[in-house]
Structures are given as structure tokens and as C-alpha cells.
Automatic annotation (TrEMBL):
This is Bacteriocin resistance YdeI/OmpD-like protein. It comes from Chitinophaga skermanii. The lineage of its organism: Bacteria, Pseudomonadati, Bacteroidota, Chitinophagia, Chitinophagales. Pfam families: DUF1905, OmdA.
Length: 161
């Protein structure tokens, strides 16, 4: 289970200008030095409302802030001055399929694992490269399943189906 980068009670604030945003100040310890202006992509919850793929944005003083849209404020029934519980995780902690997942799935199918271990490094790499050449998680999972099935039948990557 990922560890939250933020798990605290924060007060909703509003920029004092026409059309000013309502936001939460997060602090600057979570700035992403590799990204423009230190922006950080996160997911989590504000009270019981799920947040996905939102950006913490930089302020002039170096702190980060999270804009809280009117839609969210209406759902959680909160406005400027109210306190909310904010729990955030970095997007990097989302579990994407990886080579270890593929090897774990092979372990569930002993015949596939034995055949995979008999392949030379180039043949093993062909399977790994094909699985992960797509960046879409669902496609990677589908390719892992197809690969396990092929390996269980004793087929190398280049073998005809």
C-alpha cells in the first residue's frame, strides 16, 4: 500500500480577487524538482471525494497549492474557511505492470515458467519487450496473459501460433 505524501486537515482558502480560486496550501516539501515550476501530479481524497490526476501547483513563496473546483466543494459541502481532510499520493506510486509481475504470473503456470527459463536471454527479452512496448496497462496485462499461454504450450516468441 502506498504511503501518502499528505494526510492532514487543511483549511480552504480563497484568492481575494474577482474569480479568485479556492485552494488548499500544501507546503513546499513535496515539490517535484524535475518538473516545470515544481508541479506534482497526485491522486487521493478530499474528505470522501476521490481526486485523480490532479496537479499541485507552485505559489510565489515556493509552497504548493491544490485548487479545489466548485464541483468538488459542492459535493463535499465545504467553502472558504472550512476544514477538510486531504490525503494525497504521488502518481508515480500507482502500480503499473512490470517485469516482476510477468515473472510472478509465470510462477502460477509451472509449465510456462519451466519453458521460459529454458529460453536464451534474447528469446526471454523478446517476450518482455513485446509486453512492455505498449504504455497502456490493460494491454500489458493482456500481453502477459497471452505470453504465459504461449509459453505453457512451449512456443518461443517467434513461433507461429
Amino acid at each position: 500500500m502506498p504511503t501518502p505524501i499528505v494526510n492532514e486537515q487543511l483549511q480552504l482558502q480563497r484568492m481575494q480577487m474577482k474569480g479568485g480560486w479556492t485552494y488548499l496550501i500544501i507546503g513546499n516539501e513535496h515539490r517535484n524538482k524535475a518538473k516545470a515550476f515544481g508541479m506534482l501530479k497526485v491522486y487521493g481524497t478530499i474528505d470522501d471525494y476521490a481526486l485523480s490526476k490532479v496537479s499541485l501547483m507552485p505559489m510565489k513563496n515556493g509552497s504548493l497549492f491544490l485548487p479545489v473546483k466548485a464541483e468538488i466543494r459542492k459535493k463535499i459541502k465545504k467553502e472558504e474557511g472550512d476544514w477538510v481532510t486531504l490525503v494525497l499520493y504521488t502518481e508515480e506510486e500507482l502500480a503499473a505492470p512490470c517485469e516482476a509481475d510477468f515473472l510472478e504470473s509465470l510462477a502460477d503456470e509451472p509449465a510456462a515458467l519451466v519453458f521460459y527459463q529454458q529460453l536464451n536471454k534474447r528469446e526471454q527479452k523478446a517476450y518482455i519487450d513485446w509486453i512492455f512496448e505498449t504504455k497502456i496497462d490493460e494491454q500489458q496485462v493482456d500481453r502477459m496473459a497471452a505470453s504465459v499461454n504461449r509459453l505453457a504450450r512451449g512456443l518461443t516468441f517467434k513461433s507461429s501460433k
